[in-house]
Design goal:
This protein is mainly alpha-helical. 78% of the residues lie in helices and 0% in strands. The longest helix is centred in the middle third of the chain and has 31 residues. About 2% of the residues have low confidence.
């Protein structure tokens, strides 16, 4: 688990930094290629990418180079898949954090004789890192959790083996949800919640068979809601921290209430920084729904696996699922891109 996680984080961060640079550059071809790559990777569920890399890469290498890599360590396939996915997410985090730093600081540094590289390294990068850290931490934790999916290609990881009070509670909740794989949350909730509810219903003397009369989709909604709430708290927190605290004081000094200052001044600016992170989480939620089949919910992934089992056409089924998720996530990303342009006026 650590080998796959750390390797994917390091390689994905390097690739993500290069993608962020390409997307911020004025070179149209680089910009377009980076956007295309990020768009495709963010639209691909982790489990689908794992299967495509695990089944498709050996077939591609064998067809092009006539080399057999079917016996290669499964950890290599997992690292390749998670590196490709992680780089797309962190590139958007790096880009949003860099744009949140006032560009005038870079120009001021150049005007006093500091080289462009020195201005970037000593002034822009430290501030970018501070703004990027919360969302980067979200992505790292999410990657480590998704590493649990490596068992689906036969990699034996840990899954294969087996006020102050309010602040403390919220931190504990966020830490628990962010620190456990979504696949483990699904399996635990789907195993425990129906049994717990059944005990309560029987104790109340209600005639209701919860195991047969409750659609599993409701359990899926509960799991994904709990998981998403924990991730969004960090996105909102980091976005609010990117807005100078002096603006709250300035708003209140001219007669605005604290609520009015937040609604009219703080939140519009914070949304600009938060939108890429929210988009990442939304897309990730759509892709994560591919795990709902573990709760017998017939989603896109479940239908694909059932269809593939008749003729053992697994690559074709996973590519079909990939196209469906690509279309869904395209709509979401276009909506968020429009929102980012709209709220960019508040930057």
């Amino acid at each position: 688990t650590l080998l796959v996680g750390i390797s994917s984080i390091v390689l994905g961060s390097l690739l993500g930094g290069a993608l962020a640079w390409a997307k911020l550059s004025q070179h149209k071809i680089l910009n377009y290629l980076a956007q295309l790559y990020i768009y495709i990777m963010r639209c691909t569920p982790s489990i689908v990418m794992l299967f495509i890399v695990f089944y498709g890469l050996p077939a591609l290498v064998e067809a092009v180079f006539e080399e057999n890599i079917h016996d290669m360590d499964r950890a290599v396939f997992a690292i390749i898949a998670f590196t490709l996915l992680f780089s797309a997410y962190v590139s958007e985090i790096f880009r949003a954090a860099y744009k949140a730093v006032p560009h005038g600081q870079y120009e001021a540094a150049i005007s006093i004789g500091i080289s462009p590289w020195g201005a970037f390294w000593h002034i822009m990068l430290p501030q970018t890192a501070v703004l990027a850290l919360p969302n980067f931490g979200n992505s790292v934790i999410n990657l480590l959790k998704e590493g649990a999916l490596a068992y689906t290609i036969g990699l034996i990881d840990m899954i294969g083996k087996g006020n102050p009070v309010v602040s403390l509670i919220s931190r504990g909740y966020v830490s628990f949800v962010r620190g456990t794989p979504i696949v483990l949350q699904i399996l635990l909730l789907y195993s425990l919640l129906p049994s717990l509810l059944n005990v309560i219903i029987q104790a109340l003397g209600i005639e209701f068979n919860i195991f047969e009369q409750v659609d599993p989709i409701y359990y899926a909604i509960v799991v994904f809601t709990l998981n998403t709430v924990a991730l969004l708290t960090e996105v909102f927190r980091s976005a609010l921290m990117s807005v100078l605290s002096g603006q709250l004081e300035a708003g209140m000094s001219i007669g605005l209430s604290e609520f009015q200052t937040y609604v009219r001044v703080i939140i519009p600016q914070a949304l600009v920084t938060a939108l890429p992170g929210i988009c990442n989480i939304t897309v990730n939620l759509i892709k994560g729904s591919s795990l709902a089949f573990l709760m017998t919910v017939k989603d896109v992934m479940a239908v694909g696996k059932i269809a593939a089992s008749f003729g053992y056409n697994y690559i074709e089924a996973y590519l079909d699922a990939f196209l469906v998720y690509l279309i869904l996530c395209t709509i979401i990303q276009l909506a968020y891109a429009g929102a980012e342009r709209r709220f960019g006026a508040y930057r």
